Structures are given as structure tokens and as C-alpha cells.
Automatic annotation (TrEMBL):
The gene is udg2. This is UDP-glucose 6-dehydrogenase. It catalyses: UDP-alpha-D-glucose + 2 NAD(+) + H2O = UDP-alpha-D-glucuronate + 2 NADH + 3 H(+). Pfam families: UDPG_MGDP_dh, UDPG_MGDP_dh_C, UDPG_MGDP_dh_N. NCBIfam families: NDP-sugDHase (TIGR03026). Residues 324-436 form the UDP-glucose/GDP-mannose dehydrogenase C-terminal domain. The keyword Zinc does not apply. It comes from the Bacteria. It is an enzyme of class 1 (oxidoreductase). SMART domains: UDPG_MGDP_dh_C.
Length: 453
């Protein structure tokens, strides 16, 4: 099938590459010339395990093309996926300017039937806005062409995006019941048929419910995390181990084991913005989503938990103190630093006068870029940051180690080396990687999250 992907970011590139892998003829559009140049030169602009091979294989086979040519991209696909960003506006609502710009271009250049798929995470009612914009463009060209707007939200996780896309636990598709909607449903069924071969994974619904499902899923996952973080903070006071509690409750199938890990807060491009956007949607209807407001507030506090533990141990003024930080990306296996808890910790340490040595397996370049933005008001503080070449190099002469991201490489370090490299053997573990009793045995002063047993 002929597919166009508008927006070649995390979701667009993975969607395009994976649909090409299934034999479709895919055209990926982006407004960012730099991204398109990297892709056309055989590289990929993001770190995502397994993606480069899929992109390379399908580009070589001629099934996957990258361009900034809007007219050619609209001409190409019978199905047009909109996969552009929906960042938070100043009031926290989803900024739809990129989605609507993409829709405008479709209306401007389409010459026949198109299925327009909202793949971006968009508030309930956005499909109607997309439909209106396309209709306006067509009417300004005095054209009456058939099209249908479908909602097909994406549930992939960064760091496992290719695997998640290729082996989805569900595919949610919202279509309307017009004749164009029926035509769209047939094309979408054909497109996703390879995923439904062994058992049906597609949940068909109306457009608004599909749009809502995406926010409900992210809000539920974020809620579990904030709930566990709140319990972890209590566990620290009462002397319980939140990790033991996690096993104890996760074994109940009604609760399940996933997304119960306490830590230094959730980051990333989606949970923080989607929780906020759902709250704003509710406010438009004069409703307060009290649970979600608490989820957001708990997470904002939780991102400060490592910094607070450090200042409790070393005092509020950290001048003359030096810390090692392992992990900068918002989670392992990505270089994405959007809303990463490491940014909050570095802000606290540097503004309190400390110097730091930081290490991340893939996010160093991205860290340099985002820290310039975070410290636009005090760029001189960035001279106190040293970018280390490996985890051990970061430890040299530090008063303590803080762990922010649970990269595999941090799970079983040589603790003798860790102890001898640090000025004093103190570890603040924001991802609960180590066993507190083992740390005690080997003489490490250990601060986990909710593990003061
Ligand atoms: P991204 O910022 O990585 O990519 C968006 C791309 O769209 C950028 O490359 C940008 O240059 C391009 N773009 C903007 N306007 C354009 C236009 N008019 N025409 C063509 N290209 C345009 O964003 P992302 O992380 O891929 O997220 C995209 C959407 O998918 C968001 O709504 C997000 O919430 C949702 N989502 C993201 C993930 C994830 O893991 N990142 C997972 C599920 C859903
Ligand atoms: C999340 C969802 O898991 C995806 O299903 C969804 O498609 C995506 O958002 C999206 O809409 O963009 P992602 O943000 O890539 O995916 O990564 P997650 O693995 O969900 O982690 C998000 C954050 O939560 C990370 O900072 C992680 O460290 C944190 N987390 C996760 C915890 O603190 N505890 C947990 O138990 C799980």
C-alpha cells in the first residue's frame, strides 16, 4: 500500500520504517531538513535500538523514502499518517499547530480520496478540527474530494519502539460511520492485517473513544508510578522496602507487576505532557481531574527527591562538593532528554554550588544541547559540568554517586572500584538498582527510594 508519514520523529520514523518492513511503499515527510539529510545519507537522527537496520534495509529496497517535499508527500500516500509533535502549550493543553498545519497541507494538495490518520496523541475532538481544516482548504480550491479522518494512536515506548510497533499488544482504530469512514476502515484493516494473523489485536471504536483511549492509557501508567513513589516516600519513614512491597502487591494478577517501580520520577515526552493535557481537557468542561492533578504534583516533587536526599546528607550549600551522576536520558536505551529527571537534579546540584561529572552511554550530545537551554540564565554554571567517557571515569574524587537512569551497564559495577574512586562511598540510587543489605555489607552508605530498611 502507498503510505505517507507526516513528521519523521520518534513515532513517524518507527511507523514508516516498520510499515515499509511489511512491504508497504512509504514516503516520510519532515520540515526539518537536517533530519531528512541524515536519513538520506544512511544515518538516523535518534538513538533507538534496531531502528537503523530496518531503515537501512527498507531504504535500500526502495520502499522507504525521506523528503521535505510537501506536494510529493501528499500525492504519494492513499493513507496519510499525521505523526507530528503535540507539545504542551503554555497552559498545559496540547498545542495542535503542527497537526493542523499537516492537515492544511493535505487539503491543499490532495487530488483524490485520502485516509488521514491521526497517529499523534491528540485531545478528544481533534479529528473534527482536522476534518474542518481539510474541508476549508478544499473549498478554497473549489474542490469537493472525499476523505476520512481516522484516529490510530500509538502506544510504543522509546527504547523498545521497533519491538513494540512490530508486536503490538493492541491496535486501536477509531473510524466514523460515514461511507468514507467505511472505506477508511477497509484500508486500515488491510494495512494492519499482518499484525492480526494469529489473533485479532485491533480494537475498532468511534473516533473520540480512540482519541480518549490514548490519554487514558498514559494517565493510568503515570498514576501507578506516582502512587508507588508516594508509597516509597512513606516506606522511607516507616522503615519498609518498597521493592519488597512491589513484589508483594504485583503478584496479585488484578494489580500486575508492570509500572510499579518507584524512582526519581517519570520523564519523557509523553507522560508529563499527556497528564497535563487531559487535565486541561477536563477543565474545558469545568471538571477537575483530582487524581491526575495529584499524579502530576507527586511527580514534580519526586524529581527533586535525589537532590533533597543529597542536601539532607551534605547540607544546602554544596560549594566545594563534587558529585558523579550516572544516567541523563529519561530512561535507558534512548538519548531522549525531554522532561528527564536528570535535568532537575543537575539544576539543584549546580545552583547549590556543586561541580558534577556526568556519564550516559548515548545521551551526552543531547545533554549538552538541553543543558544550554536549562541554564540560559546562568550559563557560567555549566563550566562545573564534566562529561565523563565511562561510568568509572565519572566517579573520580566525587563525594557521592547519584544514579538517575537504570542503564544495564550500571547494574553490577565493580563495587571495589566504585568505593576506591569515590572520595567517600556514598550512593544515591534514584532507580533502586542495588540491594540495600548488600550495600551495607560492603560498606557503602546507600540511599535508595523507599528502601530505608
Ligand atoms: P518528535 O518531535 O520526535 O517528531 C515530530 C516531527 O514532526 C519532527 O521531526 C518535526 O520536525 C516534524 N514536523 C512538525 N511539523 C511538521 C509538518 N507540518 N510537516 C512535517 N513534519 C513536521 O515527536 P514524537 O516523539 O515522534 O511524537 C509525535 C507524536 O506521537 C506526539 O503527539 C506524541 O505524543 C506521540 N507519541 C510519542 C511517542 C514517543 O515515544 N515519542 C509514543 C506514542 C505517541
Ligand atoms: C510511554 C508509554 O509507556 C507508552 O506506551 C506510550 O506510547 C508513550 O509513553 C507515549 O505516549 O509517548 P515512554 O515515555 O517512551 O512510553 O517510556 P516508559 O517506559 O513508559 O517510561 C516513562 C517514564 O516512566 C520513564 O522516565 C521511566 O523511568 C518512568 N517509569 C516507568 C517509572 O518511574 N517507573 C515504572 O515502573 C515505569
Amino acid at each position: 500500500m502507498k503510505i505517507t508519514i507526516i513528521g519523521t520523529g520518534y513515532v513517524g520514523l518507527v511507523t514508516g520504517a516498520c510499515l515499509a518492513e511489511l512491504g508497504n511503499d512509504v514516503f516520510c515527510l519532515d520540515v526539518d531538513q537536517r533530519k531528512i539529510d541524515i536519513l538520506n545519507a544512511g544515518g538516523i537522527p535518534i538513538h533507538e535500538p534496531g531502528l537503523e537496520e530496518v531503515v537501512r534495509r527498507n531504504s535500500a529496497a526502495g520502499r522507504l523514502k525521506f523528503s521535505t517535499n510537501v506536494e510529493a508527500s501528499v500525492a504519494h500516500g492513499d493513507i496519510q499518517f499525521i505523526a507530528v509533535g503535540t507539545p504542551p502549550d503554555e497552559d498545559g493543553s496540547a498545542d495542535l499547530q503542527y497537526v493542523l498545519a499537516a492537515a492544511r497541507n493535505i487539503g491543499k494538495y490532495m487530488t483524490g480520496f485520502k485516509v488521514v490518520v491521526d497517529k499523534s496523541t491528540v485531545p478528544v475532538g481533534t479529528a473534527d478540527k482536522v476534518r474542518t481544516v481539510i474541508a476549508q482548504e478544499l473549498s478554497s480550491r473549489q474542490q469537493e474530494l472525499p476523505f476520512s479522518v481516522v484516529s490510530n494512536p500509538e502506544f510504543l515506548k522509546e527504547g523498545a519502539a521497533v519491538e513494540d510497533f512490530m508486536r503490538p499488544d493492541r491496535i486501536v482504530i477509531g473510524c466514523d460511520s460515514t461511507s468514507e469512514g467505511e472505506r477508511a476502515r477497509d484500508l486500515m484493516r488491510k494495512l494492519y492485517a499482518p499484525f492480526n494473523r494469529n489473533h485479532e489485536r485491533t480494537y475498532w471504536m468511534d473516533v473520540r473513544s480512540a482519541e480518549f483511549t490514548k490519554y487514558a492509557a498514559n494517565a493510568m501508567l503515570a498514576t501507578r508510578i506516582s502512587f508507588m513513589n508516594e508509597l516509597a516516600n512513606l516506606a522511607d519513614h516507616v522503615g519498609a522496602d518498597i521493592d519488597a512491597v512491589r513484589h508483594g502487591i504485583g503478584s496479585d494478577p488484578r494489580i500486575g507487576h508492570s509500572f510499579l517501580y518507584a524512582g526519581c520520577g517519570y520523564g519523557g515526552s509523553c507522560f508529563p505532557k499527556d497528564v497535563q493535557a487531559l487535565e486541561r481537557t477536563a477543565q474545558e468542561y469545568s471538571l477537575n481531574l483530582q487524581i491526575l492533578q495529584a499524579v502530576e504534583a507527586v511527580n514534580n516533587q519526586q524529581k527533586q527527591v535525589l537532590g533533597n536526599k543529597i542536601t539532607q546528607r551534605f547540607g544546602k550549600n554544596l560549594t566545594g562538593r563534587h558529585f558523579a551522576v550516572w544516567g541523563l536520558a529519561f530512561k535507558p536505551n534512548t538519548d531522549d532528554m525531554r522532561a528527564a529527571p536528570s535535568r532537575v537534579l543537575l539544576g539543584e546540584l549546580l545552583r547549590a554550588g556543586a561541580t558534577v561529572a556526568v556519564y550516559d552511554p548515548v545521551a551526552i550530545d543531547e545533554a549538552k544541547r538541553v543543558l544550554e537551554l536549562d541554564f540560559y540564565d546562568a550559563p557560567e554554571l555549566l563550566t562545573a559540568v564534566r562529561y565523563a567517557n565511562n561510568p568509572m571515569d565519572a566517579l573520580d574524587g566525587a563525594d557521592a554517586l547519584a544514579i538517575v537512569t537504570e542503564w544495564k551497564a550500571f547494574r553490577s559495577p565493580d563495587f571495589d572500584k566504585v568505593k576506591s574512586s569515590l572520595k567517600q562511598p556514598v550512593i544515591f540510587d534514584g532507580r533502586n538498582l542495588y540491594d540495600p543489605s548488600v550495600m551495607r555489607e560492603i560498606g557503602v552508605e546507600y540511599y535508595g527510594i523507599g528502601r530505608s530498611v
